[in-house]
């Protein structure tokens, strides 16, 4: 199905300077009704799940601002997402910054409304716990696959006693709830010092494909993409991109930076390698502007969001 008479178009830099006008994702219109779009761009301004540096609640606003640099056509793939799908800014999740469980419920309901309207979400966060209510909101009858670019597995059980909800636990909860198929999850870029030698045991026991950074550097972007595609196959797949997957040189403004990551170019190559997968949603998480340098992390977040938008738009258009 094609909606040529109702496609939304970003405001061009020659129509209005990039530093002027309303701040929205990709300079698209902001609307309220998810039934008007195929892909809903959403902000999740929340960092109450963070256990280290905070500030991710300001991430969506800065990503919106830096997304003015994203234009109409992808330079390498020539994908023109706004010609393929109806895409607009759906605003922010109505978070409660002082109540984690309430925000989890609010987020689930927000994304369920998007899902039931037939739209696919692409989100800018926010700390990584925010991915859990997204997954809850778009969950179907069968568990989803997931591609996770990250320096941390985020499959811990509890923090500070018996607290099950932090940015280090979302994917353990999603697997326990039957939302994700652990044997269809691949985590790329895992690294950093550990609390104990058994930190990744639970993930391995569930069948998650954990690609630690040393293996990634042996394989390179093309080898990693080949492995990603073999793990997720053709089942509905969610993509989550934590900016701390990148070396802090490329993304200093994040909650839990880990040195020794891959480059922004390598990340772009891997996202482009997701073309043709059955993608049902994506996010870019953990951009923390208070720790950013010259807005580089927010610009990187906006760039990865556009990369994801391009491959996502092809997947959505193919299903129409």
Describe this structure in words.
By secondary structure, the protein is an alpha/beta fold. It has one domain (25-319): Arginase, Chain A (3-Layer(aba) Sandwich), CATH 3.40.800. It contains nine helices and eight strands. The protein has helices spanning 59-66, 81-84, 100-116, 131-138, 170-176, 201-206, 213-232, 264-272, 296-319; strands at 39-44, 87-92, 120-125, 144-149, 180-190, 209-212, 237-242, 279-285. The chain has an eight-stranded parallel sheet with strand order 2-1-3-8-7-4-5-6, sandwiched between helices. Helix 1 crosses helix 9. It is globular and about 55 Å long. The protein starts with 38 loop residues before the first strand and ends with a helix. The mean pLDDT is 95.
Biggest sheet, strands in spatial order?
A: 2-1-3-8-7-4-5-6
Q: What Rg, in angstroms, do the CA atoms define?
A: 18 Å
Helix/strand/pairing class, anyone? alpha/beta
Q: Into which percentage range does the β-strand content fall? A: 15-25%
In CATH terms, the superfamily is: Ureohydrolase domain
How many domains comprise the coordinates?
1
- Biggest sheet layout: 8 strands, parallel
CATH class: Alpha Beta
Average pLDDT: 95
Proportion in helices: 25-40%
- In terms of quaternary structure, what is this? single chain
Provide the low-confidence segments as ranges.
none
């Amino acid at each position: 199905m094609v909606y040529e008479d109702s496609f939304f178009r970003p405001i061009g830099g020659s129509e209005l300077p990039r530093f002027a006008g309303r701040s929205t994702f990709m300079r698209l219109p902001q609307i309220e009704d998810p039934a008007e779009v195929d892909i809903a761009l959403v902000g999740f301004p929340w960092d109450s799940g963070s256990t280290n540096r905070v500030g991710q609640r300001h991430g969506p606003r800065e990503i919106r601002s830096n997304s003015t640099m994203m234009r109409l056509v992808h330079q390498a793939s020539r994908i023109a997402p706004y010609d393929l799908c109806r895409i607009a800014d759906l605003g922010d999740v109505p978070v409660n910054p002082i109540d984690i469980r309430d925000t989890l419920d609010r987020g689930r309901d927000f994304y369920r409304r998007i899902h039931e309207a037939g739209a696919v979400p692409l989100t800018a966060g926010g700390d990584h716990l925010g991915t859990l209510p997204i997954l809850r909101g778009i969950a179907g009858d069968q568990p989803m696959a997931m591609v996770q670019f990250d320096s941390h597995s985020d499959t811990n059980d509890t923090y500070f006693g018996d607290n099950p909800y932090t940015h280090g636990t979302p994917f353990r909860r999603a697997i326990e709830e039957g939302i994700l198929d652990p044997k269809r999850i691949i985590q790329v870029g895992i690294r950093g010092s550990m609390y104990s030698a058994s930190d990744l045991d639970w993930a391995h026991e569930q069948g998650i494909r954990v690609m630690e950074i040393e293996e990634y550097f042996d394989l390179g972007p093309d080898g990693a993409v080949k492995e990603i595609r073999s793990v997720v196959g053709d089942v509905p797949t969610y993509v989550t991109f934590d900016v701390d997957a990148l070396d802090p040189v490329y993304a200093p403004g994040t909650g839990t930076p880990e040195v020794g990551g891959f480059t922004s170019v390598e990340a772009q190559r891997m996202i482009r390698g997701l073309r043709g997968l059955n993608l049902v949603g994506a996010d870019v998480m953990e951009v923390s502007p208070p720790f950013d340098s010259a807005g580089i992390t927010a610009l990187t977040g906006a760039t990865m969001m556009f990369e994801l938008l391009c491959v996502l738009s092809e997947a959505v258009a193919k299903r129409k």
